[in-house]
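Fold this complex.
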Amino acid sequence: MSPTIPGPANGVTGDAARFGVAAVVAVLVTVLGYAALATPGAWFPRQEAAAWNARQLALVRGTGGLVGEELVVTAAGPDGTVLISLDSDLRSDQYPAIAWAAIDVPEGADLRLLWRSDIAPARVNSVRIPVESGRPLPVLLAGNPAWVGRVKGLALFVGTRLDRPLHVRGVVAKPMGAPAVLGDRMREWFAFEAWTGESVNEITGGADLQDLPLPLFAAVAGTLAVALWMLSTRLSRRPLAWLPFAVVTAFAAGTALLDGRFTWNLARQAAEASARYGDLDLREKHLAAEDGALFAFVEKARERLPATPARVFVAAGAHYLRSRAAYHLYPHNVFHDPGRDTMPRADLLRPGDWLLVYQRPGVQYDAATRRLRWDGGPPVPSRLELAGNGAALFRIDAASATP
Amino acid sequence: MTWLVLAAAVMLPWIAGIAFVLALPRRIALLDRAGGLAWTLGAGWFAGVLLLTLWMRALAQVGVPFGIAAVALPMLVAAVALGLLARPREQPALREARAGALRTLRGDGLAGWQRIAWFTLCAWLALRALLLFSEVTLRPLFPWEGWTIWATKARVYYEMRTLVPFVNAEAWASAASGAWFDAAPDAPATVPLLAAWICTALGRYDDVLMNVPWWIAGVALALAIFGALRQAGLAPLAALAGTWLAVSLPLLNAHVALAGYADIFLAGAVTVAALGLYRHAESRAAGDVALALAFVAALPLVKSAGVVWVAAMLPGVAAALLPARGRRVAGILFGVAAILVVVLARTTVPLGSSTLQLDFVPQWGTLAQRMLLLDNWHLLWYAAAVALVVGARAWRSSTLQPAVLIVAGGLAYAFVVFAFPIARAWFGEPASANRTLLVIAPLTAALVVLTARDWIARVGSVQAAAADPGTEVAVSPTPPAGA
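Structure:
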């Protein structure tokens, strides 16, 4: 039962109309106010932003490859660093800002933008890129003494070992005029946000990095609309009885805007999932997934393993691959280090145990003596049961397992 | 055939849960109330999940292997028995409840912009559900903890056809056999058992279709919130708008689309428990409070941090059970918790070979970014701040008090795990405060809607006293506590 009570006596339509006008004015004021704050130089420069996507990037140091529209770096190079580069030809005075689009940057990582200019081609310049929530922030280079001449090459340097795959989507050089600034915001708001490992922890709402997040814009514009409506109501000496409706309307409109954007993104995500996995059976879906190559190897490994659960140790350099390999091996009695890249202690191995190694440097097998050793430790008698690309499955020898 | 089996597998616990909710003691039929049917369907899913997994635990305890007959037949018998128990009271109301639901769905009684808004919102929610269903049924298990904590157990339980122990690394190394290891061996078995049941019904380990219960959880949450808002006196359109607000939260949607985490089940249990207490404050039905307490008690079975969530909900539970002294009891509980936190932050307590101390390391910027700037929650926390300003006075004396205290308890807990990183490790909470906030976010949304309703009614009442009656507004004020 919904009892009714009297609402505002009269002028509801007038209140709604005034609120509509206030909302339009509020949106305009918010947009122009932001443009005034965010445009560093001329409002209307001539040149466009220059952008490079993941396909145009070269992974110089580190392990990884293209997955969809992302360059996914699964492991750092032998020296523990990652270097991604691209060729460019930019006039530095026209592009005062560079923004890398990447996620899953390790916490506290030493992240740098490197560049070379035609003024001093032999010299590699660098500037530190601030990282927030695993994402690099745009770097303003206007005023940097090395940001001169034509920029002939850009690179992203990660001086920290990766604890999970790094996803790089591209890089943008920005002229930063007012239409470009506002256009950037629109593109950021409506950029496709694909599901990542972080999506269960955080939904950005568009591009990974946003100078003006859409929720803040909606909140500011909504608050301003209510304030303008209150001002006009007061000036016309009318009561503020419609205030709750004004607040609810502003909130509902803002939520509708945000949820419309989210729904559109979800539809694109669903279309992508359908294109990738539609009409595939379960096995094919796994083969089409990010770790398809790993799944294929584990599938072969499972054929070598006994039907009943066996003890299987898993080692892989990358946290993601180690944990994924373990997952695919259950219900076998799997053991791996969920936190660090470690090999099993030799004293834990028993005759009949298995060891699956996937993309993990430092493991050597001597086929002649059937000895396996890792990280300078003692040799362990074992048999190579299966070998793949950077992957192997060993069975610990029953005769003389533990040294 | 697969889809039929899957449908039967999810309907089994759902029907049992619905029967359980209907059978709980009350004087007036649950289905007699506005929103009663939606509430029953929504709460019934979460109750059914608990019943199913409790039964599977019992089977494992007595050594009966999981199988379709061993799980489904007793659940069906229980559902029929509970249904028979509820029938004398609920059967007469069922026909009218169904007819009322159809009328509501058709938008009967709505005209003009309200009718347009009703069908727009219905279509919006239906589209959302469709897109999420597509995601859930296409993508192999995707999110990290899904395959490092929960599905690891699900697969082993399914293949071994029973509950097997998961132990930590040291225990695993010393165990002869029969003990498994994963990234969180202490995580409770409810969610893995639910997934294992789906696989048992399908006859194969399928880490795509076993995620369908997560989608059902999203739908059930929407139904429960709609039912609770309708029972609170909101008109269908306002209740639907409130439901949209609650279930459109992007992070909640991510936990449906990227199924595999336990958080949405924790959020469902907390929301249904809090709304059950809200219903109890109005209905005084023993069944409402019993259901709420059952969900509170079940929290530790859903996630390790559920134990702490029980503590966080205690002030709200006290306010619901002891209306006269609830606020004082809640104040004492909050005070004790605050003193404990301050003492632990200011001192070092020796604890065997280690020490116990809370290091205060808040990152306010990150918190503000996650709550207000990124699109995790749309405008929920802005709205909650406004609701605090306009509703604080009303909250103290209204039936909303238990829900308010539960949200406050949840926020206090979220603050502790956010500001004291070591607490995250103790409670098994993730680094992102968002996942902690997710548990109370749907309830907060419902609370915001109820507060807005009260605010509109209050202003309308003041206006009515000052002027001639004019436009009719379909709202009703929250009755005082104990009414």
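Chain B touches chain A through 95 residues (CB under 8 Å).
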